[in-house]
Amino acid sequence: MKDLIQETIKYVKDFFEKDYTGHDFYHTLRVYKLTKKIAEKENCDKEIMYLTALLHDVDDYKLVGKEKVPFKNATEFLKSKNYPEDKIKIICHNISQISFKGKDSIIPDTIEGKIVQDADRLDAIGAIGIARTFAYGGSRGREIYNPYEKYKENMTEEEYYKNKGTSINHFYEKLLKLKDLMNTKTAKDIAKKRHTYIENFLKEFLDEWDGNK
């Protein structure tokens, strides 16, 4: 397993070499490391979990668009390593359930999927989550904040994907919701501190915006 994981890390590093959206190689590496931490108290298939974590963004619609063949990049890479077909299907199934999709988001039906979803969501909050939000917003030409543009609640998957709101609105539309959507106790404990950090950031941001500080 060790050799395959190292080969996968190299593949992902090359894949995201010129990504500046916050979904770069280091995001994937942090998610991978967080899965290790969360898995310490969970009974799971580590090989499946690690590969799910490392490959979870290589077919992300935000980065590669909607592909005619679902999970084409993850599948082709694993096949090139002669990885068993049945395990490839499990990994792709896990990946399909991880992303936040507004009110259409789902809880993965495997513990490996739950752990990776938690790790991915943890990297969306806290100090790094704040940095990633503005990196992604800037890469898509979004405003930092517009006080006349209200954030949207309870979006469907389609509405969420089409939404072009401000970076600050994204905190209210997604990031502040994540603490209560964690699956594992370890992730819930980590999320509390990171959630408080973004709450404090938003208060400071809005105070400065209004000229109060």
Describe how the helices and strands are arranged.
Layout: H1 2-15, H2 25-39, H3 46-55, H4 61-64, H5 72-80, H6 85-96, H7 111-122, H8 126-139, H9 157-162, H10 167-173, H11 185-209
Helix pairs in contact: 1-2, 1-3, 2-3, 2-7, 3-6, 3-7, 5-6, 7-11, 8-10, 8-11
Q: Strand content of the residues, in percent?
A: under 5%
Q: Evaluate the radius of gyration.
A: 17 Å
Oligomer: single chain
Count of domains:
1
Shape: globular
Percent helix: 55-70%
So how many helices? 11
Largest sheet: none
| CATH hierarchy: architecture | Orthogonal Bundle
Name the helix and strand elements from N-terminus to C-terminus, one letter apiece. Answer: HHHHHHHHHHH
Number of strands: 0
The secondary-structure class comes to mainly alpha
> What fold name goes in the CATH topology slot?
Hypothetical protein af1432
Uncertain runs are: none
Query: On the 0-100 scale, what is the average pLDDT?
Result: 94
Q: Please write the CATH class name.
A: Mainly Alpha
Note the gap between the termini: 53 Å
